[in-house]
Amino acid sequence: NAGVTQTPKFQVLKTGQSMTLQCAQDMNHNSMYWYRQDPGMGLRLIYYSASEGTTDKGEVPNGYNVSRLNKREFSLRLESAAPSQTSVYFCASSGWYGEIYEQYFGPGTRLTVT
Amino acid sequence: EDQVTQSPEALRLQEGESSSLNCSYTVSGLRGLFWYRQDPGKGPEFLFTLYSAGEEKEKERLKATLTKKESFLHITAPKPEDSATYLCAVPTSGSRLTFGEGTQLTVNP
User: Fold this and answer.
1) Beta partners for residue B84, in sequence order
2) How many whole angstroms separate alpha carbon B37 and alpha carbon B93?
3) Pick from B32, B96, B101: which is nearest to A100 by CB?
4) Residues of B in contact with A33 (CB under 8 A)
5) Is the pLDDT of residue A99 over 70?
6) Which of B36, B43, B91 has its CB closest to that of A101?
7) Residue A18 and residue A81: Cα distance in Å, rounded?
8) What is d(CA A75, CA B27) in angstroms, rounded to the nearest whole number?
9) A48 touching B, CB under 8 A?
């Protein structure tokens, strides 16, 4: 049981390049999330998917797109990377545990845009 | 607007020196509160769920408590391996969470 996995772990892009961050979970959770974490800003929600086939914007969606490929996988795409997107990106998934949803996180992708 | 504020931003302790971290929140209809631990270069690791005011949870040297306005994470006789950033979060709409900015704890030997 690997939990939430993310690839790649590290990535360096030049301004204007595109890339896709991959996330998969094996906990049979319905909901999945993409966050970015910046110093002094905490964790901010980019996009989320409450269930397979649905996606919604979070706090900071500009410059990103997502795809909920199936129940297990949720990808984040940067179409034209900008230096402001330099950050650490975390994927999470959540399931219902009787009284409340609990979120579990992946190990993160550290992205640098030059 | 739902808000979560953690204090202090950073805390430095000597090994064995007990202390508390604070998480205060303003959210309509609290449905629970979560504590996470985050080590450098890693994702947040789930610690506790507190469901209602008055509830307490313990894990090793950590004890989390919840009132109607805030939560405390008490650390008793900490060790250097307790050094990490501690995050709290509250559910907002659906399964979404609002996070505080965290308290960075350093425990010196």
Assistant:
1) B105
2) 23
3) B32
4) 96
5) no
6) B91
7) 6
8) 30
9) yes
* Residue B38 · residue B84 · CB < 8 Å: yes
Span B51-69, pLDDT tens digits: 889 999 999 999 999 998 9
CA–CA min distance B41, chain A (Å):
8
Taking a C-beta distance cutoff of 8 angstroms, is the pair A79, A113 a contact?
no
Quick one: DSSP state of residue B48?
Answer: E
pLDDT tier at A95, thresholds 50, 70, 90: confident
Token match 């979060």: residue?
Answer: B89
When pLDDT is cut at 50, 70 and 90, the band that residue B93 belongs to is confident
What is the rounded distance in angstroms from the CA atom of residue B13 to the CA atom of residue B38?
A: 18
* Residue showing tokens 């805030």: B70
Instruction: Look at residue B30 in the predicted model and tell me its pLDDT.
Output: 80
The residue type at A103: Q
Question: Looking at this protein, which amino acid is placed at residue A38?
Answer: D
Q: Is A31 helix (H, G, I), strand (E, B) or coil?
A: strand
Q: Name the nearest CA neighbour of B34 among A101, A91, A44.
A: A101
pLDDT at B31 over 80: yes
- How many of the other CB atoms lie within 10 Å of CB of B48? 22
Choose among A33, A42, A107: nearest Cβ to B101. Answer: A42
pLDDT > 90 fraction of chain A, expressed in percent and rounded: 82
